[in-house]
Design goal:
Strand content: 5-15%
Largest sheet: 6 strands, antiparallel
Number of domains: 3
CATH topology of the largest domain: Transferase(Phosphotransferase), domain 1
Radius of gyration: 26 Å
Number of strands: 11
CATH class of the largest domain: Mainly Alpha
Strand order of the largest sheet: 1-2-3-4-6-5
CATH architecture of the largest domain: Orthogonal Bundle
Number of helices: 9
Distance between the termini: 67 Å
Order of helices and strands: EEEEHEEEHHEHEHHHHHEE
Helix content: 10-25%
Length: about 350
């Protein structure tokens, strides 16, 4: 059994910060540079040693800002160990439990999770146990925000497909993420809730299984609850943009309907925007625009003529549907998602936000 002040490789154990039935995770410092902290995973059950070997092999070479980095590994030492980057902060679970995440925070966190998974998948490693307990949030997020690079990190690749390719069953992992929560927090039941249907049934598993789990996590971050029935995030949290309902449905779907890659999932987190504005003239509009964007009549009372391409457009349009030129003197935008609603819309058709005058 490991103990405080015990030397493991170049590091001295300070305090146990997590673990489970198969082993423990300790915070440790370098024996000379005491400000250099690491997390060390140590098996306490001989049956877990082979799993630790596979985990160490699987994450070797995974160097990405959104993945907890492996630093040292010796499964044959007198006390076998896996040394990892130490991430001060907490797992994602407390943020979900406290319902403290805004829509913008949720999107930034999910983008970083997907960036880490995209890198792992490109290196032929499927995590297979993506859940809030295995997502670490660095304490820097409190000051720098969730969009700051590297504040969100994926850990515990012990169940990864490459790590258990020759294993008869799914194996088990010593949970690093327990470390950063209150005692027992990582014992929350419900890992099955993050498993894709093909994983539960023992079918072929690829990176899309991780994307299914990300869909569940997206729902949780937006609502504080796990998906149930046919409810979408906006059914539970009315401030959640409608377009994120579609993102959730595409991730929480049967295999052939699901996002095919993490990059595709991440791209869907940003709503489609109109084309960029061309060079403009007076008051933010094209040269010659009249107040309120009203142009001389076109072929019908409800239409006007675009001053650039001379094609008919509807009165009240902010942009020409043919050439993209700005028609309105002042462009109306949704304050929540940045889309361009019509002048008379009371609600944004993209996110459902109530609009002012």
């Amino acid at each position: 059994m490991a103990a405080a002040n015990q030397r493991i490789s170049e590091y001295v154990l300070e305090a146990k910060v997590g673990g489970g039935g198969f082993g423990e995770v300790w915070r440790a410092h370098h024996h000379v540079w005491i400000d250099q902290l690491v997390a060390i995973k140590i098996p306490t059950d001989p049956q877990y040693l082979r799993n630790l070997q596979r985990e160490g092999v699987a994450i070797h070479g995974l160097v990405h800002p959104n993945i907890v980095r492996a630093i040292g590994f010796d499964p044959y030492a007198e006390t076998p160990y896996l040394i990892m980057e130490y991430v001060p902060g907490s797992s994602l679970r407390p943020y979900i439990a406290q319902k403290s995440l805004s829509v913008a925070d949720t999107i930034e966190i999910m983008k970083q999770i997907l960036a880490g998974l995209a890198y792992a998948h490109a290196n032929n490693l499927v995590h297979r146990d993506v859940k809030p307990e295995n997502i670490l949030i660095h304490e820097r997020a409190a000051k720098e925000g969730f969009s700051s690079p590297g504040v969100v990190k994926i850990t515990d690749f012990g169940l990864g497909k490459a790590a258990v390719a020759s294993l008869g069953g799914p194996g088990a992992s010593i949970a690093y993420s327990q470390s950063l929560n209150s005692p027992g927090a990582a014992d929350i039941a419900g890992t099955l809730d993050y498993m894709s249907p093909e994983q539960r049934s023992g079918g072929t598993v690829d990176g899309r299984a991780d994307l299914y789990a990300c869909g569940v996590i997206l729902y949780e971050m937006l609502t504080g609850e796990r998906p149930a029935g046919t409810d979408c995030p906006s059914d539970v949290n009315h401030s959640a943009p409608k377009y994120l309902d579609d993102v959730f449905r595409r991730s929480y779907a049967r295999l052939d309907k699901r996002f095919s890659t993490a990059e595709e999932f991440a791209k869907a987190l940003t709503p489609a925007q109109p084309p960029p504005l061309p060079p403009v003239g007076v008051s933010g509009g094209p040269a010659g625009v009249q107040a309120g964007g009203v142009w001389p009549a076109a072929s019908s009372p409800g239409q006007t003529t675009c001053p650039q391409c001379q094609k008919a457009v509807d009165r009240g349009d902010q942009f020409c549907m043919h050439c993209g030129v700005q028609l309105a003197d002042v462009v109306r935008r949704c304050p929540q998602c940045g889309a361009y609603p019509d002048a008379n819309d009371r609600f944004c058709i993209f996110c459902g936000q109530t609009l002012g005058g």
